[in-house]
Structures are given as C-alpha cells and as structure tokens.
C-alpha cells in the first residue's frame, strides 16, 4: 500500500489545502509587518558566527602562552643547571627491629606447621 498524495480521501486533501492557504496568508501578513526581505521568516536561531579561532582562547591568551613556552625553552637551552633534588636517604631497620621481625615470622611459620600438621624440610629445592 503506497502513501501517495492521491491515496488520501478528498476531504483530507481539502483540509490540507485549507491549512496551506492559511499559512500563506499569515506569511503575507508577516511580510507586510517586516517588509520584503527584511527579517527571515524562520523561527530557527541563526548559527553563531565563527571568528576562526582555534578552541576558545583569545589571540592575546595564545600570545601569552607562546611567550611563556619560549621563555621555558630559552631557560632550558641556556645551560643553566637545573636544581638537583637531594636523593632520599635509604631507610634501614635497626638490628633489634630485624630480630623482632624475624622472631615474629618464625612464630607464624611454627603456628602454620602445627595447624597444617606438616613438617617442612630445612631446604626447599625449586
């Protein structure tokens, strides 16, 4: 079943024609108010004018950014030594702390052996 213009009943076509005549009459009234070619009759907002800028930065901002980048590169290329961060001192445990940790680990291993009921060999072979 096609939906061509002629497939509709005559009454529907007459209603559409009447609505079209009303639209044309209203457009004529608008042209009378605004004058011919003055204002567009569409209700859509015109697209904002583009000014050719990349992104949203103004030319002044871009110039400041370029100047700052050039200054950074000039400083880097000048051979001025950059501040060297002091190496962090390596932390070490005291002998007493290491002994406490070793004793605690041995206690955990002993508990594990008892819980599992398995005796572990002195040396593991991989």
State the main characteristics:
126 residues; mainly alpha
Structure commentary:
The structure is a single chain. The chain is mostly helical and 126 residues long. Helices cover 52% and strands 0% of the residues. It has helices spanning 10-34, 59-77, 95-116. It is elongated, with a radius of gyration of 43 Å. It starts with 9 loop residues before the first helix and ends in a 10-residue tail after the last helix.
Poorly predicted residue ranges: none
- Percent helix range: 40-55%
* Proportion of beta-strand residues: under 5%
Mean pLDDT: 80
User: Which term fits the overall shape?
Assistant: elongated
Terminal-residue CA separation = 81 Å
- Radius of gyration over alpha carbons? 43 Å
Strand elements, count: 0
H and E string: HHH
Secondary-structure-based class equals mainly alpha
Largest sheet: none
Supply the number of helical segments. Answer: 3
Strand-helix topology:
Layout: H1 10-34, H2 59-77, H3 95-116
Question: What is the gist of this entry?
Answer:
It contains 3 helices and no strands. The protein is an all-alpha fold and 126 residues long.
């Amino acid at each position: 079943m096609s939906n061509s213009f002629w497939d509709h009943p005559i009454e529907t076509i007459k209603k559409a024609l009447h609505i079209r005549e009303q639209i044309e009459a209203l457009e004529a009234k608008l042209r009378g108010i605004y004058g011919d070619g003055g204002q567009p009759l569409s209700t859509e907002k015109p697209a904002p004018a583009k000014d050719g800028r990349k992104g949203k930065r103004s030319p002044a901002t871009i110039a400041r950014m370029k100047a700052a980048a050039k200054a950074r590169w000039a400083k880097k290329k000048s051979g001025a030594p950059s501040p060297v961060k002091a190496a962090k001192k390596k932390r070490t445990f005291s002998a007493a702390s290491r002994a406490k940790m070793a004793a605690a680990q041995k206690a955990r291993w002993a508990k594990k052996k008892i819980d599992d009921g398995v005796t572990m060999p002195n040396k593991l072979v991989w």
